[in-house]
Amino acid sequence: LRIICLLVILQFVWMLMQKIFNYDPVFYSIDPCSVSNHKMPLTGWSGNPSLLGVFFATNAFLLLNYFRIRKFPILFFMILPAIILLNNATTAICFAIGGIFYVLNKYKVKKSLYVVLFFGIILFLFLIYIKQPNMDRFVVWQKLITDGLKIRPLVGKGLNYFAHLHILDKTGTPWGEAHNDYLQLILEIGAIGFVLFMGFVVSKFIAYFQEKRNNREICLMSNLLNYLIAGLFLFPMHIAQLSYLAIVQLSCLESSY
């Protein structure tokens, strides 16, 4: 888990380097002159700003347990710059909800209410500030629901089948992922597999709330909650790197029970 924390810090530092120097010759390999407005997208090592934001949201809460400066968690030195620089709605939503979940599980009710209000204000302000979200995904979801989910709805069509549907957005661009892991899972593993998967998820939350929780376990569950939330708008369950880190954290959480 400390290695995951170090990866989060290194990603954050690399993102700042991208912002300052406007070039990432090692991990992105794009001539900055070929990019519009001569500005490189902030991708870290993920190749995509949105997935970089999900990486932060699904792993950064471990910093609340392992890395502190004079008992002050360095996550708070990273959360606002990450949201501002990435300018991504999913990242802001995950950090806000994950933060509220952490506070409600960690502190007394009276203190928690003030912090929840703080996170709510931050989320509201950044949802106003950030760029307009891509509404094309609603077109893709509609086509997936009306056309794709009719195909073998009980058992599904197999993993990574979504790309074979060749669903186009309003601009005529084909999407390789549905940008909603749950709809895509229903397509791939069917209603039966999806019910079993969600039953497993619910069982983990039931086990979590039935046990006495320490700070490490709260941090792990906050990250895993963000992983599930990000699946509503992106596809972390279909990205090997993000899924691997989620499995590692789930295994560490399981070992605590």
Question: How would you characterize this protein structure?
Answer:
The protein is mainly α and 257 residues long. The protein has a two-stranded antiparallel ribbon. It has ten helices and two strands. A hairpin with a 2-residue loop joins strand 1 and strand 2. The longest helix has 30 residues, at 181-210. The chain is globular.
Q: What keyword list fits this structure?
A:
single chain; 257 residues; mainly alpha; two-stranded antiparallel sheet; 10 helices; 61% helix
Layout of helices and strands:
Layout: H1 2-21, H2 49-59, H3 63-66, E1 68-69, E2 72-73, H4 75-86, H5 89-106, H6 109-129, H7 136-146, H8 181-210, H9 215-230, H10 240-254
Antiparallel strand pairs: 1-2
Helix pairs in contact: 1-2, 2-5, 2-9, 5-6, 5-9, 9-10
Number of strands: 2
How confident overall, as mean pLDDT?
Answer: 81
Rg (C-alpha, Å): 19 Å
SSE pattern, N- to C-terminal: HHHEEHHHHHHH
State the secondary-structure class: mainly alpha
| Helical segment count | 10
| Distance N to C terminus | 17 Å
Q: Which strand order spans the largest sheet, edge to edge or round the barrel?
A: 1-2
Q: What gross morphology would you assign?
A: globular
What share of the residues does DSSP label as strand, in percent? under 5%
Major sheet size, sense and barrel closure: 2 strands, antiparallel
Low-confidence stretches: 28-37
In helices, the fraction of residues equals 55-70%
